[in-house]
Amino acid sequence: MSGGTQRAWAWGRPLGGVAILGILVWRVGTGPFLDGVRQVSVWALLAASSITVLTTACSAWRWRTVARGLGVGLPLGTAFAASYRSQFLNSALPGGVLGDVHRGIRHGLDAGDVGRGLRAVAWERTAGTVVFAVMAGATLLFLDSPVRPAMGWVAASAAVVALGAAVAFRTLPLLRPSRVARFARAARSDVRNGLLDPRAWPVVAITSVVVAAGHAAVFLVATWTTGSDASLLRLWPLAMLVLLAMVVPLSVGGWGPREGVAAWAFAAAGLGAAQGVAAATAYGVMGLVATLPGALALALDRMRRARRRPDARRLAEVPVP
Q1: What confidence score (pLDDT) does residue 152 get?
Q2: What is the DSSP string of 75-109?
Q3: What pLDDT is attached to residue 92?
């Protein structure tokens, strides 16, 4: 990807989120957004924060497991604080991934291998996304939702893509020496050691399920907080659809596709587009508040590293006999 294309994509991602929000304001007005902010209660914030503690701990455990498989050790406490810091940065900055890049680079620097640090984060996030996609696909296939009629074709297409990826993982490393073959060999080694190792895959699978269920639970709390009385069975597929939209890389700190899909999905389910926008807005507010401990972790990390620099400079000035 050329430099011009990278700059265009970097600008296009947040602008896409702003465009979606602008269309929503034009269609439903500002009322649902304001309602989503006003109706967030203290109890809703406490529930979201409690659930986030659990999901953050599971994310940290998953990351630590994958990193250990790749040969870059990571204490669980450090992973927990870094995961909180990453979530806060993802929520506060455009793009939704800068926090993950930050924790990957920071871990790589601490471990003495930036490449492996970034790969550990990338594979950990990929594993979580794949498990969530399977959960969401099963939910939308078997429970009533606006997309259920098309889910048979979606499931068949996903199976074909997965089969193609498996074949590529087995055949590409056997090619004659090339950049593609080297990349495929490294990726296969990472997956085998970091994700599919007998000590790793149960942890990765269970923690990913808990993380996905936790995010969906926060969205359910946001929906009920903003006045909906729909049942869990009716709202769970809609929550999965909204969370799937958050994977789309067109957002401003997570805002944009989430609210757009929520408006469409709730309207298609007969609950009203305004209710969907209000629920998604409340979810965004609750998620940001729940990740505020990450701001504290970021400040403490910077203070600790600032104290280390003078000590390092003084040691460097000591004459060597």
Answers
A1: 85
A2: -HHHHHHHHHHHHHHHHHSTTS-HHHHHHHHHHHH
A3: 79
Q: What pairs with residue 255 in β-bridges? A: 252
What integer pLDDT is reported at residue 174 of this predicted model?
65
Cβ neighbours of residue 179 under 8 Å, at least 6 residues apart?
none
The angle formed by the CA atoms of residues 64, 70 and 71, to the nearest 5 degrees, is 90
Q: How far apart are CA 267 and CA 39, in angstroms?
A: 20
Task: Average pLDDT across each block of 10 residues of the chain; the chain has 321 residues. List them in order.
Answer: 59 76 90 93 96 96 95 91 92 78 90 90 94 93 89 87 80 69 81 89 96 96 93 94 85 83 94 95 94 89 74 46 38
Got the DSSP string for 189-205?
A: HHIIIIISSTTTHHHHH
Q: Is the torsion defined by CA of 154, 160, 163, 164 positive or negative?
A: negative
140-175 in b/e burial notation, b at 16+ Cβ within 10 A?
beeeebbeeeebeeeeeeeeeeeeeeeeeeeebbee
Sign of CA dihedral 271, 277, 282, 283: positive
Q: Which two tokens stand for residue 91?
A: 């929520």
Distance CA 143, CA 287 (A): 26
pLDDT, position 111: 85
- Amino acid symbol at 300: L
Neighbours of 178 (CB within 10 A): 10
Every domain of the chain and the residues it spans: 36-301
Six-digit token string for 162: 């997965």
Query: Closest Cα to residue 216, out of 310, 131, 105?
Result: 131
At which residue do the structure tokens 């959960």 appear? 135
Longest dimension (CA), the chain: 80
Q: Retrieve residue 55's tokens.
A: 């999901």
Taking the whole predicted model, whether its pTM rises above 0.85 is answered as yes
